[in-house]
Design brief:
Layout lengths: L1 H25 L2 H44 L3 H31 L4 H11 L12 H7 L5 H6 L3 H15 L4 H27 L1 H16 L4 H17 L2 H10 L4 H18 L2 H14 L5 H14 L3 H16 L6 H17 L5 H16 L6 H5 L3 H22 L17
Helix pairs in contact: 1-9, 2-7, 2-8, 2-9, 2-16, 2-17, 3-10, 3-14, 3-15, 3-16, 4-9, 7-16, 10-15, 10-19, 11-19, 12-13, 12-19, 13-14, 13-19, 14-19, 15-16, 15-17, 16-17
Length: 423
């Protein structure tokens, strides 16, 4: 469904921009009025997506923490894997923050293109918004009222509450813990079903929204959209270097052997855009080419696919910083720290979701943490096909790199039943 949906959404984006630009050029009042009515459908579609963000993020966060805690409890190797995943995700988030800000400083979006996107999305120019200071930010981290935080889209306090809630749930008696996690899993799956329903109408929604972009700005936004694809793709591709560096420093396998082993998996990732579909190939290359014992690869690689995506914070933060750049918002250190923290927490919970669903579930909370409008996200979703290729390539490189780093030649690894690892 989602592979063909991406193509239909991209076609809808192009048709909407062209139709809106035609109305813009003709200047016919009747056509403009009709286009405005169609654009309202896009606003309705966006609100239908918005309504799922808070419950979906909170439930995914709670169930994700529970799954990570259970995985870490299966043995020392699993605990080392979780620790390595955490370190790599933090590195990835910091890298994305620095690299995206640096790239946009060297290659800023054309002001006319940025204005066209802002006008098309109907969002206000927020350059005059004053960001809270460090003291105010620190006080706001813990929500005095989680329900109020959810209602006001105060995403960082909600994530903090979700983290405490998730870890507290892991300390409940087995019966209560199972019941609670089952409840949140059911709510999350229900939200995902709703998102799937809404995404069936994505071509119509994106057409309506892009029609508004073309109506207000002609084709002036096309260059900014192309630059978005280039920036996010470059930043996401860059993180794939980190696993090579980690393997080189660990000396568990030779760098050349790792490069040769991961290359066919990267080709498969390019064609499938699915880490899960690449898992059999990763297991084969790890055992046959890198001589990683099945008891190590059989635990680490399924665990990595289940709870670890190296490119998640990288690409998601790059999207959010690009949107902030479009709106003229310059996040301060507190906002960047909040975005990094949210991207780290969200990356665990959103793993395993289809690309179109995870795009909203992962990116929207980070935008909210930065104080950035999310009105542009449906338009950006339509061109996410190219960056998503680099997301998957980086993910499988990170997964196989983690297995190579955790492999210790000559040392007897813990014998853990691979079937106990998350699939």
């Amino acid at each position: 469904m989602f592979r063909s949906l991406a193509g239909r959404v991209l076609i809808a984006l192009v048709l909407g921009l062209l139709a809106g630009a035609a109305c813009h050029a003709l200047g016919n009042a009747t056509l403009t009025s009709a286009a405005g009515a169609v654009e309202a459908i896009g606003g309705l579609w966006l609100n239908l997506l918005r309504m799922t963000i808070v419950p979906l993020v909170f439930c995914l966060l709670v169930t994700g923490i529970a799954s990570v805690a259970d995985a870490a409890a299966t043995g020392r190797l699993a605990a080392r894997a979780i620790a390595l995943f955490s370190v790599l995700l933090v590195i990835a988030a910091v890298y994305s923050t620095l690299a995206t800000q640096g790239l946009l400083a060297l290659w800023p979006v054309d002001p006319a293109g940025a204005a066209a996107l802002r006008a098309g999305a109907g969002g206000a120019d927020l350059a005059s918004v004053v960001a809270p200071g460090l003291a105010d930010w620190l006080k706001s981290i813990a929500p005095s009222n989680p329900i109020k935080a959810a209602a006001e889209d105060a995403i960082l306090p909600l994530v903090v509450f979700g983290v405490f809630f998730g870890f507290a749930a892991t300390r409940l008696p087995a019966g209560h813990k199972t019941a609670l996690i089952t409840l949140f899993s059911a709510v999350a799956e229900t939200m995902i079903i709703i998102v799937r329903w809404v995404l069936w109408a994505a071509p119509l929604g994106v057409f309506a929204l892009s029609l508004g972009v073309g109506l207000r700005a002609g084709l002036g936004a096309a260059g900014a959209l192309a630059q978005y694809v280039a920036v996010v793709s470059l930043i996401t591709a860059g993180i794939a270097v980190v696993p090579y560096i980690a393997v080189a420093f660990s000396r568990s396998v030779s760098l050349g052997a790792f490069a040769r082993a991961v290359a066919p998996v990267q080709v498969l990732a390019f064609s499938t855009q699915s880490s899960l579909a690449c898992l059999p190939a990763m297991l084969e290359r790890a055992q046959d080419d890198l001589r990683i014992p099945p008891r190590v690869s059989g635990l680490v690689l399924p665990l990595a696919v289940a709870v670890f995506r190296l490119t998640s914070p990288v690409a998601n933060l790059a999207v959010c910083y690009f949107v902030a750049h479009i709106y003229g918002i310059h996040p301060g250190l507190p906002q960047m720290l909040a975005a990094i923290a949210v991207s780290f927490a969200i990356s665990v919970g959103s793993v395993g979701l289809p690309g179109q669903i995870s795009f909203f579930a992962s990116v929207a909370p980070i935008c909210l943490a930065l104080g950035v409008p999310i009105d542009l996200l449906p338009i950006l979703l339509a061109v996410e096909v190219v960056p998503d290729i680099f997301r998957t390539i980086g993910n499988v490189t990170g997964d196989l790199g983690a297995a190579a780093v955790l492999h210790r030649p000559g040392e007897e690894a813990e014998i853990v039943d691979p079937e106990s690892a998350p699939a």
